[in-house]
């Protein structure tokens, strides 16, 4: 949907066919709903991913992230990045920055609802080790000096132990389907891990 919305002004037949496929998917999944469990993780956990240079027109990358609580997704987003990334690590780093902003807000809201503050850092999983090292390194890195300074704010929150980025392999990345087209098996894996179940499968 996010990708198709870019062709609203001059849609072609291929776009109409894709829209029909979306409607068929919605019809086939209308009985799905988010399930939250008492024995699920009581701490908010995030997953963020990026698809480097996915837009063939301007070569901007796509960011996707989701946050989980009690076994189900409580927040998710997929959007095109505002600037062109020069590497996969840079695209992932920008995605981590977007996820960090959402994480800080969710962490504050969660603390207010529980009437207590969680002193543990909020864990966000990423499948790019270079981007994770960039978020934790205080050293000068010539290859990253061009990255917009607004993306470096997450380093402060990592150093202040507000957020912690951890590595996860790509095959276990839940946010993968928010950035790119995936196989049917991977799509099913992602939506299931996000807590989506059919009404008859509770």
> What distance separates the N and C termini?
28 Å
What overall geometry do the principal axes of the alpha carbons give? globular
- The run of helices and strands is HEEEEHEHHEHE
Query: How many individual domains?
Result: 2
| DSSP helical segment count | 5
How would a crystallographer describe the biggest sheet? 5 strands, mixed
Strand content: 15-25%
Give Rg in angstroms. 18 Å
CATH topology of the largest domain: Nucleotidyltransferase, domain 5
Q: How is the largest sheet built, in terms of strand order?
A: 4-3-2-5-6
Q: Structural class of the helix and strand makeup?
A: alpha/beta
- Mean pLDDT equals 87
* Uncertain segments: none
CATH architect. name of the largest domain: 2-Layer Sandwich
Please identify the top-level CATH class of the largest domain.
Alpha Beta
Helical residues, percent: 25-40%
Structure report:
This protein is α/β, with parallel strands linked by helices and 202 residues long. It folds into two domains: 1-30, no CATH class; 33-201, Nucleotidyltransferase, domain 5. The protein is 34% helix and 20% strand. It has helices at residues 13-28, 88-114, 129-136, 153-159, 184-193, and strands at residues 32-34, 45-51, 62-69, 72-80, 122-126, 163-167, 196-198. A five-stranded mixed beta sheet has the order 4-3-2-5-6. Strand 3 and strand 4 (72-80) form a beta hairpin. It is globular and about 50 Å long. The model has no long low-confidence stretch (mean pLDDT 87).
Features:
20% strand, 2 domains, 202 residues, Nucleotidyltransferase, domain 5
């Amino acid at each position: 949907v996010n990708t198709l919305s870019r062709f609203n002004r001059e849609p072609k037949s291929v776009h109409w066919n894709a829209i029909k496929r979306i409607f068929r998917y919605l019809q086939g999944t209308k009985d799905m709903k988010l399930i939250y469990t008492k024995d699920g993780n009581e701490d908010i956990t995030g997953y963020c991913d990026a698809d480097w240079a996915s837009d063939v027109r301007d070569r901007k990358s796509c960011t996707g992230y989701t946050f989980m609580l009690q076994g189900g997704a409580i927040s998710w987003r997929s959007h095109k990045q505002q600037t062109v990334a020069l590497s996969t690590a840079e695209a992932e780093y920008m995605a981590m920055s977007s996820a960090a902003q959402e994480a800080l807000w969710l962490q504050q809201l969660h603390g207010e609802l529980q009437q207590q503050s969680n002193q543990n850092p909020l864990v966000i999983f990423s499948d790019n080790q270079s981007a994770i090292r960039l978020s934790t390194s205080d050293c000068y890195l010539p290859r990253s000096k061009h990255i917009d300074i607004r993306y470096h704010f997450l380093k402060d929150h990592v150093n202040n132990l507000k957020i912690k980025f951890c590595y996860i392999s790509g095959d276990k990345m839940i946010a993968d389907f928010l950035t790119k087209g995936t196989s049917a098996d991977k799509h099913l894996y992602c939506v299931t891990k996000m807590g989506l179940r059919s009404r008859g499968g509770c």
